[in-house]
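ESCALATION

Customer reports they have been waiting on this structure for their group meeting. Please prioritize. Original submission:
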Amino acid sequence: MARYFITLSYNGSKYNGWQIQENTSSTIQQVLQDKMSMLLKEQIEITGCGRTDTGVHAKYYVAHFDSNCLDLISNQKHWVYKFNTVLPSDICVHKIEAVRYDAHARFHATERTYYYFLHQQRNPFIEGLSWYVYGDLDFELMNKAAAELLNYTDFTSFSKLHSQVKTNNCKITKAVWNKCGVDEWRFTIKADRFLRGMIRAIVGTLLLVGKNKITIEEFKHIIEAKDRKLAGNNAPEYALFLTGIRYPKEIYS
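Update from on-call: job pushed to the front of the queue and completed.
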């Protein structure tokens, strides 16, 4: 029995998030486990690097699993191809890597990167993958507010209520809006971990700054108050993408 990391991407539009749920089979984790178990002819249990919510996408997602199959690495090209032939077209496997027997896709991750996409001119080719926001936005002011996130660690004000976590502390190392097209913007945020709903709540609150509905000082007060009711509404889930995971080199075998 050996442990492997599998790197994949998925369009989450049709799924109820990553994690297996009792009331639906439409989750990324469930589909992967079913298809990989069928192909490898053994019961495969997959553990993901994080729990993406309903409708959220991943361009770069990592999960681990154990298998008795001995040629997953030596014959990797074949197995990647085989996995993709049985998976639906909105889920794609890219790579399989051998890791230490105790390597954990979630707990060993040291950094996660997300993108959130926003556009201000209607575009049918990015609908459902980017959030259309009408009206003027001051992105310079939004970036000043976003930079303040790096000065805090407790993000209770941006966390989904009643989530079962031991701490609401996160270390954000990057938070910035960049123009990525005509009237198109991308918010990049990096941290060691994220709370449920955290990024969408941050984006929704930054838009209040960009619309001059709150000041940067008020934005800082929202963080310091540790009260979700003071923050803005969650931005839509369909414009959020997990795009990167970093691991220490020593977990790879």
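Sent to customer with the following note: The CA atoms of residues 97 and 139 lie 40 Å apart.
Escalation resolved.
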